[in-house]
Amino acid sequence: MRLTDRWYFGGVLKRKAIEFHKSGYPQVTTEELWVYCQEYIWPKRQALTHKTQKRLLALITPHDFFDYQQIKIRTHQN
User: Fold this and answer.
1) Which residues, 6 or more positions from 76, have their beta carbon under 8 angstroms from its beta carbon?
2) How far apart (Å, rounded) are the C-alpha atoms in residues 28 and 50?
3) What is the C-alpha separation between 14 and 21, in angstroms, rounded?
């Protein structure tokens, strides 16, 4: 993650990770959330501006995140 990205997205990433931890998912890291955003959610939603990217990051749910993780695992097994 670039320094500017860390500055702009760091707070919302940390808040989202804490939200996951409080929901019973302490293993989720900010790095995993960052990769999920970059590889899946932002390209899928065509999020071109930082403002849109930040909003989508704040809307991530555990259900969406773990669906992505399962797809990722299944595609790497084949």
Assistant:
1) none
2) 23
3) 10
Q: What is the pLDDT of residues 24-78, one digit of tens each?
A: 999 999 999 999 999 999 999 998 999 999 999 999 999 999 999 999 899 887 5
Cβ proximity of 12 and 57 under 8 Å? yes
pLDDT value, residue 5: 87
pLDDT confidence bin for 6, thresholds 50/70/90: confident
Backbone angles phi, psi at 48, to 5 degrees: -95, -25
How distant is the alpha carbon of residue 56 from its chain centre? 9
CA distance 42 to 16: 16
- The phi-psi region of residue 29 (left if phi > 0; otherwise alpha if psi is between -120 and 50; otherwise beta) is beta
